[in-house]
Amino acid sequence: MKAFILERYGKNRVLRAADMPEPELRDDEVLVQVHAAGVNLVDSKIRDGEFKLILPYQLPLILGHDVAGVVVKVGPRVRQFKLGDEVYARPDDFRIGTFAEFVPVKEASLALKPKNLTMEEAASIPLVALTVWQALVEKAQLKKGQKVFIQAGSGGVGTFAIQLAKHLGATVATTTSAGNVALVKSLGADVVVDYKTQDFEDVLKDYDVVLNSQDGKTLEKSLRVLKAGGKLISISGPPDPAFGQEIGAPGFVRLVMRMLSAGIRRRAKSRGVGYSFLFMKANGSQLRQITQLIDAGVIRPVVDKVFPFEQTNEALAYVKAGRAKGKVVVKLK
């Protein structure tokens, strides 16, 4: 099968187009013929070697964390899916590889594709949707009447997070540039801060939840917009000891995580707020709940650009540049 492979870690390293053997299927997996694959910042971070401690992959590696396609083979223990089903998923860690013609996905991580979406739209959803669900529903337990600050509202995570937060009944603040104000407002943002001319710390206060996706300086400032008892959830780090425990990291890796997050945890505690790191996990049942919201028209995908499969490296570079409105997708079929 055709695939794009990472042969060695390295900053902005080019993935090589290669012919690879079709992946072997485990008993609890289905083989999905990839029609479209979402492109995420995590792909370039893995390529650049940023997650070597957390995710010790063996190279060569096929990247790609989002898939929409058709079931072409079913493992003997699979009960919920059959040949020909149109599906979408975020494959599990260590089973990623959607920048290829075929990818195996665990039954427990798979869901039927929303009926009203194209394959490209569906491929844009799983990773960001599950990230937001696990941050706002699971960790933050965001409730009606609460205030949430979602950074980078016009990005892939931001466009989905604004819509889900509004559905949950929260007041939503976000940051974006002047050119994207209409977009984030159309998704439901109540308060929009132009990050080029305003400092969100001067505008926002007494928030219940912050979803942080930016750098350390932004993380630090985010503490100061929270009220006592508020929650700061970061998807861009630093990882905390609870996360190390959750993934069963070796002792020295947990120690590194403890040291990396010591400062922000200490400052959060002194302000009476909680800090936690989120690295999302594949989850088919959550994806099915998300599908219901999409089918009901509560949430719509925002796709910036669709690249042909041959331009996967260009798609990665475009995402890393940080200017995409919503998601970027590569199309195989």
| Shape label | globular
CATH architecture of the largest domain: Alpha-Beta Complex
Query: Can you identify the CATH class of the largest domain?
Result: Alpha Beta
Rg (CA only):
19 Å
Report strand %: 25-35%
Could you please say which CATH topology of the largest domain applies here?
Answer: Quinone Oxidoreductase, Chain A, domain 1
What's the overall average pLDDT, rounded? 96
What does this structure look like?
By secondary structure, the chain is of the alpha/beta class. The chain has two domains: 2-125 and 301-331, Medium-chain alcohol dehydrogenases, catalytic domain (Quinone Oxidoreductase, Chain A, domain 1, Alpha-Beta Complex), CATH 3.90.180.10; 128-277, 3-Layer(aba) Sandwich (Rossmann fold), CATH 3.40.50. It contains eleven helices and 16 strands. Strands 3, 5, 6, 7, 8, 15 and 16 form a seven-stranded mixed β-sheet that branches. The chain has a six-stranded parallel β-sheet with strand order 11-10-9-12-13-14, with helices on both faces. It has a three-stranded antiparallel β-sheet with strand order 2-1-4, with no helix packed on it. Helix 11 links the parallel strand 15 and strand 16 (327-331). Helix 3 (126-139) packs across helix 4 (156-167). The longest helix has 20 residues, at 251-270. GO terms for molecular function: alcohol dehydrogenase (NAD+) activity. Keywords: Oxidoreductase. Residues 10-330 form the Enoyl reductase (ER) domain. This is Alcohol dehydrogenase. InterPro entries: ADH-like_N, ER, GroES-like_sf, NAD(P)-bd_dom_sf, YIM1/Zinc_Alcohol_DH_Fams.
